[in-house]
Amino acid sequence: MRLIPSKPLSCLGTAVVAVVVGGVVLVGCDVVDLDEVGDFGSLEDIDMELPEGGVIASGDPSPEEEASAYGLPESCAAAGAAEVVGDLAPGPVLAEESGAVEGIDDAEQLTCSFSDGSTEPGTPVFTLVFTSNADPSANPDVVRVPGAEAEMNWEVDVDVDVDTYQNDETDALGGDLEYVGTVDGSSRQLFLSLPGDFYVAAIAFGEDVAREDLERVVMTAAEQVRG
């Protein structure tokens, strides 16, 4: 399934990104005019020593700390998927898939799909997906709805509307949201990207699910697997 945006990518929020190398801030060196030392006394009176290690620690978490903040759950039950999806599930039947993501090194995924158990084309399916080390919004083929490949027709171009944004909840989690909805309304997908190359996606196929409900699902699911 190749997604063809029907309009330019829009951003409702401006992301401010700060990169901290090794979780520390290096101390820079400025040119000091000796004539401006003045009331500070002599150079010997100025404490120019750096903390141990030669760096000043930053209050921001290191990449290692960010990576450990979210972990791939062992199962849909461990992720509380049924409770998170709640009434949005079109049926009580759960199809669970987990394992490595084909073609992407070190990537793993857990997929929890809810339906009424029917395999007929057009059967409504609600899917909650947890992915580590692979961005499913950048590669739609990473996300597979069990039993729904035929009706979703992955090889046909589909016009979609795409919207990336942030809100108060994403700011608290340190993430970003990307909404992808087909123009005909047959599929609505919301991807939450989180620190440590971790992603939570909610996909409603064959049902009219509000974006606000998708937001609630991905935010709650992220909190469930946050360490």
Task: Classify the beta-strand content into a percent band.
Answer: 25-35%
What does the main sheet amount to? 9 strands, mixed
Mean pLDDT reading: 74
Unreliable segments of 5+ consecutive residues: 1-38, 54-58, 63-67, 147-156
Outline the secondary-structure elements.
Blueprint: E1 3-5, E2 10-11, E3 24-25, E4 56-57, H1 63-67, H2 81-85, E5 93-100, E6 108-115, E7 125-132, H3 149-152, E8 158-165, H4 168-173, E9 176-182, E10 187-194, E11 198-205, H5 211-224
Parallel strand pairs: 1-8, 2-8
Antiparallel strand pairs: 3-4, 5-6, 6-7, 7-11, 8-9, 9-10, 10-11
Summarize the structure.
This protein has 227 residues and is an alpha+beta fold.
Task: Please explain how this structure is put together.
With 227 residues, the protein is an alpha+beta fold. The protein has 5 helices and 11 strands, in the order E-E-E-E-H-H-E-E-E-H-E-H-E-E-E-H. Strands 1, 2, 5, 6, 7, 8, 9, 10 and 11 form a 9-stranded mixed beta sheet that branches. A two-stranded antiparallel ribbon has the order 3-4. A hairpin with a 3-residue loop joins strand 10 (187-194) and strand 11. The protein is globular, with a radius of gyration of 23 Å. The two termini are 34 Å apart. 29% of the residues are buried. Mean pLDDT is 74; it is low at 1-38, 54-58, 63-67 and 147-156.
